[in-house]
């Protein structure tokens, strides 16, 4: 069906990413910083981890896109997140929320819910986190998902009240957004079971989503393009590195190697479904 972003839109967004090399401000967890910065550099964006309350708002006005990830929040970082999200909204810069462990830890869940007032372009989380953020449960004990992404679709749709597009990642990524008056679900397959064996891959997908949101015509296209770029790169990496440690390095190489031909050959975007 042609009413939602499909392969041609992903190819165009990827070309725009490579042409414009967007500057992404990341306010992220301490586990993810180095890997995330390398993911952005390899994929075709420029990272800057500016996450202190003194500089976060100023930099949100300079950056092309902003990622806010709640993985290891401190009081100071949360203050910076509030300031950056407000500044990004005011400046019309797309920002992405990754509500790590929102369902399992009430304090950060409250912070994530509060940040929704600043209208993220996209929310990206694993299935448990999307369900938790929507206030529908979630069930995970930590940062890894214990839910099937298909079960997160009602939660993702609810979150469209606050964000233009929402994804629940997993073996098949489920992405929802609006196209005109329609609410649509786009499923993206492929990827690698080694991705969840390497920490901060999901976090880095959120950062890549901020990069794509800065160059794509709309947040839904950006969110789909980020997931497809990730999935296709993971397949290339797994083919040469079948265990987690070497896979992490091969994945960075593969993010760089993805081009139009690889996207056209390997992208697994299912036909969009209209949600009631
Ligand atoms: N079994 C799987 N097969 C293929 N791809 C997968 C699988 N599980 C997860 N992925 C992919 O891994 C990436 C990260 O998704 P995941 O759901 O693990 O995020 P996350 O739990 O937020 O990650 P993290 O907290 O480790 O940063 C996504 O691109 C997703 O498509
Ligand atoms: C392991 C871990 N703990 C808090 S954030 C994070 C990174 C993956 O979510
Ligand atoms: Mg994970």
TrEMBL record:
<keyword id="KW-0547">Nucleotide-binding</keyword>
<comment type="similarity">
    <text>Belongs to the Thz kinase family.</text>
</comment>
<keyword id="KW-0479">Metal-binding</keyword>
<feature type="binding site">
    <location>
        <position position="124"/>
    </location>
    <ligand>
        <name>ATP</name>
    </ligand>
</feature>
<feature type="binding site">
    <location>
        <position position="49"/>
    </location>
    <ligand>
        <name>substrate</name>
    </ligand>
</feature>
<keyword id="KW-0460">Magnesium</keyword>
<comment type="pathway">
    <text>Cofactor biosynthesis; thiamine diphosphate biosynthesis; 4-methyl-5-(2-phosphoethyl)-thiazole from 5-(2-hydroxyethyl)-4-methylthiazole: step 1/1.</text>
</comment>
<dbReference type="GO" id="GO:0004417">
    <property type="term" value="F:hydroxyethylthiazole kinase activity"/>
</dbReference>
<keyword id="KW-0418">Kinase</keyword>
<feature type="binding site">
    <location>
        <position position="169"/>
    </location>
    <ligand>
        <name>ATP</name>
    </ligand>
</feature>
<keyword id="KW-0067">ATP-binding</keyword>
<dbReference type="InterPro" id="IPR000417">
    <property type="entry name" value="Hyethyz_kinase"/>
</dbReference>
<dbReference type="Pfam" id="PF02110">
    <property type="entry name" value="HK"/>
</dbReference>
<comment type="function">
    <text>Catalyzes the phosphorylation of the hydroxyl group of 4-methyl-5-beta-hydroxyethylthiazole (THZ).</text>
</comment>
<keyword id="KW-0808">Transferase</keyword>
<protein>
    <recommendedName>
        <fullName>Hydroxyethylthiazole kinase</fullName>
        <ecNumber>2.7.1.50</ecNumber>
    </recommendedName>
</protein>
<dbReference type="InterPro" id="IPR029056">
    <property type="entry name" value="Ribokinase-like"/>
</dbReference>
<keyword id="KW-0784">Thiamine biosynthesis</keyword>
<feature type="binding site">
    <location>
        <position position="200"/>
    </location>
    <ligand>
        <name>substrate</name>
    </ligand>
</feature>
